[in-house]
């Protein structure tokens, strides 16, 4: 029978290496620079209310889970080849509350749904990095195995995230902010 003490150095080494390998897990977080960007598809997650989102997009095509049974729900609208989603965490007050986040996915050839800094579906993640990263794209950057790249502003609760394909092209964009 082996003692755990025998494997302790290996366990410590694995605990140190694991946090350094986010790209292998498909996730990369990058420190963002400048003022936080809370805009997507013309909505500001810090100022736009769910009532205003409904006024612009109309009745949602899908709502999950049922708002009467849960305090959180995702409302989704399909507009052509785009799927726009708004996540509301305190659903009982949703008409006058800001969404927790907004996400868009699909094809956007008309460049309808961009971020506040002008990043759209179909753009390259390298372009997004030049716009959002604190180092403006000059530092070392590897997303070879990444599927999701997140730009986070220090202690701010605002986050912009991008899903990317193997060609480093943005396939989905999301903006979250905790009020």
Structure description:
This protein is of the alpha+beta class. The chain has 3 helices and 10 strands. The protein has helices at 4-17, 50-57, 125-132, and strands at residues 27-31, 39-40, 43-44, 62-64, 73-79, 82-88, 101-106, 148-152, 159-164, 170-176. It has an 8-stranded mixed sheet, with helices on one face. It has a two-stranded antiparallel ribbon with strand order 2-3. Strand 5 and strand 6 form a beta hairpin. It starts with a helix and ends with a strand.
Number of strands: 10
Helix content: 10-25%
The major pleated sheet works out as: 8 strands, mixed
**Topology as a string of helices (H) and strands (E):** HEEEHEEEEHEEE
Structural class: alpha+beta
Major beta sheet, strand line-up? 1-8-9-10-7-6-5-4
Helices, by number, come to 3
């Amino acid at each position: 029978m082996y003692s755990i003490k025998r494997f302790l150095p290996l366990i410590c080494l694995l605990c140190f290496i694991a946090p350094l390998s986010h790209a292998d897990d498909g996730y990369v977080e990058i420190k963002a620079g400048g003022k936080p960007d809370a805009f997507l598809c013309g909505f500001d997650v810090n100022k736009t209310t769910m009532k205003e989102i409904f006024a612009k997009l109309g009745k949602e095509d899908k709502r999950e889970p049922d708002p009467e049974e849960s305090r959180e729900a995702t409302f989704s609208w399909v507009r052509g080849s785009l799927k726009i989603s708004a996540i509301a965490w305190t659903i009982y007050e949703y008409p006058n509350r800001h969404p927790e986040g907004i996400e868009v996915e699909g094809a956007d050839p008309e460049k309808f749904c961009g971020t506040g800094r002008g990043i759209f579906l179909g753009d390259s993640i390298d372009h997004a990095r030049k716009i959002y990263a604190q180092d403006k794209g000059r530092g070392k950057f590897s997303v070879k195995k990444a599927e999701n790249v997140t730009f986070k502003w220090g202690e701010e609760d605002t986050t912009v995230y991008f899903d990317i394909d193997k060609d480093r092209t943005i396939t989905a964009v999301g903006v979250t902010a905790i009020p």
